[in-house]
From TrEMBL, chains A, B:
The keyword Transferase applies. Residues 23-121 form the Glycosyltransferase subfamily 4-like N-terminal domain. Gene3D superfamilies: Glycogen Phosphorylase B (3.40.50.2000). One of its GO terms (molecular function) is glycosyltransferase activity. InterPro entries: Glyco_trans_1, Glyco_trans_4-like_N. Residues 167-299 form the Glycosyl transferase family domain. It comes from Hymenobacter lapidarius. Keywords: Transferase. This is Glycosyl transferase. Signal peptide: none annotated.
């Protein structure tokens, strides 16, 4: 089977630092190559793949801000569309714009909806619901207004998240500093548990950081700033537990899967995709309040870190994701 | 011949107030209908045409700012592209994005380049140079990097600009208040000519207005603010001359054509499309300096207002524009 993977061109694929959609497009492409699939990755020219790279955009528009994003986007998308006849299936990771070319080409298209930036983009998905196959990244993230052919969870590269059998004694908050992610609640949980808390992430909401986080920093509540790949694996792996007391219905939650891959259980508020990502009582705890989270911290040391690793490796690996997508392609192409 | 006209969807077609690209798309469509052509105008649903209206966008994104412009654009463009097989030719007034669908459809496309918002959009035009026919709105506005099949001047509705044989004694500045349009130079010319100056237009550059225009306002230099259609025809028609001392290479200059249609000669700096729009010494004067413009004001009363009208009606009418475009379509379709 000849597969074209359409990555966004905000960043290169895989991204050097940030770029979750590019990361997943890359993980799918490399996972399919490992399965023996003939993969062409449409991405920026500075991207890397074990398959074939197809590129007309030299560098991502977020990496060279002098460029016109709309120009790059439409040149990149049309480059693939004009070559559509070469492929058995096109797998779109590039939001809604590619959909609007899909009825003009002979090749079936699978679109992973990585997120809805706004309800205003739904009409495009609705228009193309009959002619493209939508994949959700969790059951929780499905729009009731759209049909889906499958849910395929985000898959991670196992070597990036090695198992750590023996943790340190700290709790970890890992993510954007923003009310959505519950940084302030994580501090409450840690203080009431008399545990050390490490906080890693970019400050997305400066007022929230200033008012709700910064005044509570101490020897036991430490803000580390953003963490790169090497520090990330160490922080995640050596934590007693990841605290994830989110304030919104999170569509997935990469750090939740990453922590478990390292063997670290997760204590999360039971919203969004959390019930799909965590086996409560086995690989972490789903709770509704800070008080319940404090109780969970007392029990978290009894969970098997090996079970966390096994669960995450079975469900959130690059290999599993690639195999699931290959099954989707086979269903689509057969039609 | 079945023609699809693709208008932008920032405003309705024709626009209620502002919207020059929508105005020209509408003028082409209505002019073609008058020539007996089967025209479908792809525009906002609140648009008006004597042909067939095709619309999926209820209202322009500039008229209802709660909408996502990119969503409206791609739904609007793909609506036409998916119906491309119904038409002999598609005439694109919608900038570069529609070009990127053009190789996926069987119908030839003519694209009027109404302006380059930035040099960064040129790569899209270059990519599609071999497969779409570009029309410039003046010889002066041509990019040396692109091939063109024709220049077709903007065409105006003659009833909107009635001839005025006997003018008043004022000079007129008509356009955006901006250094590009030379408001300050127009004031100098009027003062040195001891003539009254009326200034009509939106303030686009507030600092320029505050520093270079406002301090010079007086009983003889009057700022009127923006003028609607009714006031516009009166202001243009009753002026002794329109002053157009531009500071940039203007691609066309609608007010220059409009003034002449009303019988009013134009004194302009000889830049951009001005040598194409004005017959110097007959329908106005092309000059290079404020001093030369002052000399021109002394002579402008001797020009025949009838000659201005005739020249503009022959070259810048809706009828002429529609006939010119029909000839372009016939050349393209025959290929």
């Amino acid at each position: 089977m000849k597969v074209a993977i359409l990555a966004p061109v905000a960043w290169r694929s895989p991204p050097r630092h940030y770029g979750p959609w590019e990361q997943m497009a890359s993980n799918v492409a490399e996972g399919l190559v490992a399965l023996g699939v003939d993969v062409t990755l449409f991405a920026t020219a500075d991207s890397a793949t074990a398959g074939t790279l197809a590129a007309v955009v030299a560098q991502g528009y977020e990496e060279d801000r002098t460029q016109d994003a709309k120009v790059l986007e439409c040149l990149h998308i049309s480059h693939l569309m004009e070559r559509a006849g070469e492929f058995d299936v096109i797998h779109n990771h590039f939001d809604f714009l590619p959909l609007t070319y899909s009825r003009l080409i002979p090749t079936p298209m699978v679109t992973t909806i990585h997120g809805f930036s706004s309800a205003r983009i739904l009409p495009v998905y609705e228009k193309y619901a009959a002619t493209t196959a939508y994949v959700s990244i969790s059951h929780a993230d499905r729009s009731p207004r759209l049909p889906y052919v499958a849910t395929v969870y985000n898959g991670l590269r196992l070597p990036d998240f090695p198992f750590t059998a023996q943790p340190d004694d700290y709790l970890l908050f890992f993510g954007r500093i923003h009310p959505d992610k519950g940084t302030a609640e994580a501090i409450q949980i840690a203080r009431q548990s008399h545990k050390r808390l490490l906080i890693a992430g970019i400050v997305q909401d400066a007022a929230y950081f200033r008012e709700r986080v910064e005044p509570l920093l101490s020897e036991d509540v430490v803000f580390l700033g953003p963490a790169g790949p090497a520090q990330r694996q160490q922080l995640l792996g050596q934590a007693l537990a990841l605290l994830h007391p989110i304030g919104f219905d999170e569509p997935f939650g990469l750090s939740v899967a990453e922590a478990q891959l390292c063997g670290t259980p997760v204590i999360a508020f039971a919203r969004g995709a959390m019930p799909e990502l965590i086996q409560s009582g086995r690989t972490g705890f789903l709770v509704d309040t800070v008080g319940q989270a404090v109780e969970a911290v007392q029990q978290v040391g009894q969970l098997s870190r090996g079970a966390c690793r096994e669960w995450a490796a079975a469900n959130f690996s690059q290999q599993k994701m690639a195999a699931d997508y290959l099954a989707v392609y086979q269903r689509i192409v057969r039609h």
